[in-house]
Amino acid sequence: MAKKKKTTKKTGGRASRKGPVSEKRDLETIASIDKLADTITKDGLKGRDPSVEIPLRTVTNMNWNKRKRILEMGDATQSRELFNVGQARKFMQTVLLAKGCKDLIEAQKTLSLRGMYYMSLHTIEGTKEKTFNEQSESDTVLEDLEVGLGGLREELHVFAKKRGTMVGNITVVDNGDEIDCRRMGSGGYAIPSICEPSVLQFKKCEAKFILHVEKDTVWSRFNEDRFWEKHNCILTEGSGQPPRGVRRLLHRLHKELGLPVYCLLDCDPWGHYIYSVIKQGSINLAFESERMAIPDAKFMGIRSDDYDRCGLSADVRIALNDRDVTRARQIADYPWFKDKRPWQKEIKKLLSNGFKMEVESLITKDISYVTEVYVPERLKAKDFLD
Amino acid sequence: MPPAAPASRKPKTRSTATAESMASMQREISVSEFFAKNRHLLGFDNPRKAVLTTVKEAVDNALDACEEAGILPTITVTMLQTDETRFKITIQDNGPGIVRKQIENIFGKLLYGSKFHRMKMSRGQQGIGISAAGMYGLMTTGKPVKIISKTGKRKPSHEVVLKIDTSKNRAEVVSDTEHPEDDQFFPEGHGTIVTIEIEGKYQKGRQSIDEYLEQTAIANPHAEITWTSPLNETVVFPRAMQELPPEAKEIKPHPKGIELGTLIQMLERTEPTSVSSFLQKQFSRVGQRKASDLINLAAKKTTNTLTPRTRISTMGHADAEALYKAIQETSIMAPPTDCLVPIGSKALLAGLLKEVQAEFFAASTRPPAVYRGNPFQMEVAIAFGGNLGREDTARILRFANRVPLLYQQSACSSFKAILETGWRNYGLTQPKGSLPTGPLVIMVHMASVWVPFTSESKEAIADYDEIRKELKLALQECGRKLGTYLRRRQKMKKEAERRSVFERYIGEIATACHNITGTDARALFVALKKIASRKTEEADQRLDQDGQVVDTRDPLEKDDDVIILHDRSGEDGDVSDSLFEDDMPSRKLPRRGSKAAKRTVVRKKKKTSKKR
């Protein structure tokens, strides 16, 4: 397995020393890019309509695998055609990005999504039209390309903006550098966006479980109270909906080191969905569920009955708006929540309460209530929603 | 309640008239007097309309006379302001002239004319118009009518000044001058000049003399009209066609078109003869067989004996009624239609083209039809686009026997027919219950031996079902052509956009593929571009409505009833995009600069100062 480097820079796409992917995989990726361009060329020269087959990334093309308990992508594909007014531009963008990825791989460098956007950005000759109007355009096309080529974003040498933090009783090797996550100060170890074994290896781990919290503010509270030390665990945070890097890392820690994952999230539909993504995978990235989902992840809280149970003040209540209500009902209807009575009860209670709560609301009890009382109690009682 | 009888007997103050005293007040009213009091019936309701009606009556007469004499009309209309509200209107034509002894009758007598008693298509009908104008002038200004007429090069011209005696319905000659043969009045050696001075008002715009003459020029492209307004501006409406319309034939009335009273009157007035020959001679479409059929059927409906040989003088009221009923029950061939002279699609288009700055023109002439036994024929022409106002409602030009109708638009049968036509089907916007909006001019013409006007001032066509139906069919035919054209234009625009989208990205794709696989970018570019052209070409060719592959020429361009001026198209946005979104059967489009586009018509019109 190739190791090699990879610094993560926020944006701007600074290149790095050597490629993040094995030579063999690189060659395979290049071959599939070549095949894509070759098909287009052959079709064009023979007077046929050039097209690219892209697996559909929609709710309709997504299956709930009951046995594996993850979301999987179906077989439906969509043909992206050049000679279709609605698709011509996207077709052009797909080819441009494919070319960009090949250049990256050949140069053995990596770029951020934003870097990719700049790399393929120019004004089309003879027009005032730009190849991409904004980064979001290139991001979606890149995801299309990723599934279309059957490769991963990392294999295309592209990474996302880094997000998420880790601290705990573990030592990792990131791009050759040994990092002791017990000695990360107040800032923590920034989880890289590519957490493949080629970049990141686990070295020494005493931790017995992982506590994943929704955001940075809560994570800081736990870190300051050195919760991970007292309870011998790993403490992670995903800045809201966790990015791929965080999910991949959690998955690997769970799979390779056998650590259970407990989630401490807000009591609202969005918190519930974060849990759902960690556990089952997301709809958009259903093709990566196998590598990211943690079907055994548990939901610790906070829960709708905590308001009464912990005796919180009425000030912490945030009224549910229409969107929250709709979203909550949607989530309750997802097949992986549908036949779970505790979850149905939880969502029902949320709706009947008519308000949501953030994890921070526990601070009204005491600054360290969450780290000293709430979580330890739950852990002790093994009181989780599954 | 107790009867209040004693009190109500009393009122004796009221004067009572006896039959005798009343008889002393009863006397004949002359037609002239009647109209003097009811001038609005003839179109003299207000000062502005009065001038228009005066010009209109004179010009109509001049055109009728010229056409009947086989002369290409050249007409000059001059309006001179003599006082703040007084105008001297002079109309000169190059017609055959009027013989001296008829001048008093024609200009001085109401209901005198050649047109009332015959079934022939003409502008004038009753013989009221010009004399009413003269009468109106006399009444408002006290000035008599002056007529100068010359019937031939070798003949002297007569200058007659007339006053109308309204109580006697007769003209009084004020002066009568004979000019020598070599007078300079008429360059062609014949013609008539009428001068009437009236109280009135001149104002441009809608329903003005300017508009009337402009429309007259549209409907009479064979006439040349010169108009000098009180502002001393001269506008010439040039002749667009060098040939006269064919002469209209006079026909006898159709049996179905008459009423019982008319039938009885005819029976009384006709020379003594047999019923059979009466029917054959007085009506069209009645031969010996049909006459016998009618009489035999009538015989069953009356107690008297009635045979084809019965003398009409012996026929009673009951017999006449039986005959009338028999006519209603028998099917009789439709009246001959050679009595109708439509303007014709070609002339309609020539007229519109001359006066309207549009981009698309279409015309449709319906086959003749019959209402109440009167043959008639409807024609419609439309002009679209170009410089016409995009936001306005459609402008309607109505004509009856080539005479523009300017007033009472909404009372006219044509207006209703236009409202009832679904213009939205043809790509125009049309608010519910109103006229379509957009850069559209709709021209409607009714040719008939007897146009059923709603009033004597001849402003609106009466709403007969048959008339409205024919009108709608003609409107629909033009509308369909317009719809096809608009769709095609829309489609053409869309296809061009489609192609440009493809072509925009092809270069990028070829370069990228070259960079990935090293293929020849140029070859791929050319190949892809070829597919793009083929794709867009394919989309606009396909099949026409009949499932035929459309040949390369635009089918509309081959249609003689359609003219498209490509140099005037180009602006878009007058058709809502959503209309023709997906469901269009596509056809071949003319590309700009193609052969079809060169078929441009030369505009002959000089500068005219018109405001629409």
Structural summary, described in words:
- The complex is a heterodimer of chains A (386) and B (612).
- Chain A is α/β, with parallel strands linked by helices and 386 residues long.
- Chain A has two domains: 137 residues, Orthogonal Bundle (Arc Repressor Mutant, subunit A); 217 residues, Dna Topoisomerase Vi A Subunit, Chain: A, domain 2 (3-Layer(aba) Sandwich).
- In chain A, strand 8 and strand 9 form a beta hairpin.
- In chain A, helix 1 runs antiparallel to helix 2, helix 3 crosses helix 4 and helix 8 runs parallel beside helix 11.
- Chain B has 612 residues and is of the alpha+beta class.
- Chain B folds into four domains: 206 residues, Heat Shock Protein 90 (2-Layer Sandwich), CATH 3.30.565.10; 75 residues, Helicase, Ruva Protein, domain 3; 138 residues, Ribosomal Protein S5, domain 2 (2-Layer Sandwich), CATH 3.30.230.10; 100 residues, no CATH class.
- Chain B has 16 helices and 15 strands.
- Chain B has an eight-stranded mixed beta sheet. In chain B, strands 9, 10, 11, 12, 13, 14 and 15 form a seven-stranded mixed beta sheet that branches.
- In chain B, a hairpin with a 2-residue loop joins strand 10 and strand 11.
- In chain B, helix 8 crosses helix 11.
- Chain B starts with a helix and ends in a 48-residue tail after the last strand.
- The N terminus and C terminus of chain B are likely disordered.
- Chains A and B meet through helix 1 and helix 2 of A and helix 14 and helix 15 of B.
Map the helices and strands:
The complex is a heterodimer of chains A (386) and B (612).
Chain A: H1 23-45, E1 51-55, E2 62-65, E3 70-73, E4 77-81, H2 88-107, E5 111-112, H3 113-119, H4 135-149, E6 158-159, E7 165-168, E8 170-174, E9 177-180, E10 189-190, E11 200-205, E12 209-213, H5 216-224, H6 227-231, E13 233-237, H7 244-257, E14 261-264, H8 269-280, H9 289-292, E15 298-301, H10 306-309, E16 318-319, H11 322-333, H12 335-338, H13 341-353, E17 355-356, H14 369-381
Helix pairs in contact in A: 1-2, 2-4, 3-4, 8-11, 11-13
Chain B: H1 5-9, H2 19-25, H3 31-37, H4 47-68, E1 74-83, E2 86-93, H5 103-108, H6 129-141, E3 145-150, E4 157-165, E5 170-179, E6 191-199, H7 209-219, E7 224-228, E8 234-237, H8 260-269, H9 275-282, H10 288-299, H11 317-329, H12 345-355, E9 360-365, E10 369-371, E11 374-384, E12 395-400, E13 403-405, H13 413-420, E14 440-448, H14 465-517, H15 521-540, H16 555-558, E15 562-564
